[in-house]
Write a structure and sequence with these properties.
199 residues, alpha/beta, eight-stranded mixed sheet, 12 strands
Length: 199
């Protein structure tokens, strides 16, 4: 497949790019700096640059592995970019790296449960709004994968557990998250919906 990864130099995007290359896919690594990634084609673009999606129309999948701002700046530009993508009818399949805060326990999102860390509330709220935007999309072929509440670099075991809208476990390594992403891209089982993964 031809796969474009926005945020290819980030914590999660790096592993998705590496896993895609490991499996022999043709990868375009999209970053704001155009950083070289061995084995991939480098491209400079912002998530908000909708024209870049048109340029990547020949790709089978566009992966969005870009996180909202974590420095205290407004999330509105990030939200606007996703709204535009959700409404765009991009011909390629769009795969979104989701957040854990918008996953649910007994119908209540984690971000709304007592004890949810305040420091992550803004990001969780933003990712929940983005999920709503994609669920409202009519023309876009999209999928979102939300990680377990703890996601961090670790070991690539190739083993993971999937869930639907609730957390599938407490933690997942970025490497196994990437394995789950590529498994879904190669054998789609969750079109136009969000699912979850954990180790």
């Amino acid at each position: 497949m031809k796969i474009a990864v926005y945020g290819a130099s980030g914590m999660v995007g790096t592993e998705i790019t590496a896993e895609a290359l490991r499996r022999g896919h043709d990868v375009t690594a999209v970053t704001r700096s155009g950083a070289d990634v061995a084995g991939a084609t480098a491209r400079v673009a912002e998530l908000s640059d909708l024209a870049s999606f048109t340029d990547l129309a020949s790709h089978d999948v566009i992966v969005l592995a870009v996180a909202p701002d974590r420095t205290g700046q407004s999330h509105e530009p990030f939200l606007e970019a996703h709204r535009a993508i959700a409404a765009s009818g991009v011909p390629a399949r769009v795969f979104i790296v989701g957040g854990a805060g918008a996953t649910e326990i007994d119908g209540v999102q984690l971000k709304d449960l007592p004890g949810f860390p305040t420091v992550y509330k803004a990001e969780a709220t933003t990712m929940g709004a983005i999920l709503d935007d994609y669920r409202s999309s009519t023309d876009l072929d999209w999928t979102m994968l939300s990680p377990a509440p703890v996601i961090a670099p670790g070991e690539r075991t190739g083993s993971y557990v999937l869930g639907v809208d609730s957390p599938a476990g407490d933690a997942v390594s970025t490497q196994d998250y990437a394995v789950a992403v590529l498994d879904e891209l190669e054998t789609p089982r969750h079109p136009k919906r969000r699912f979850t993964v954990a180790n």
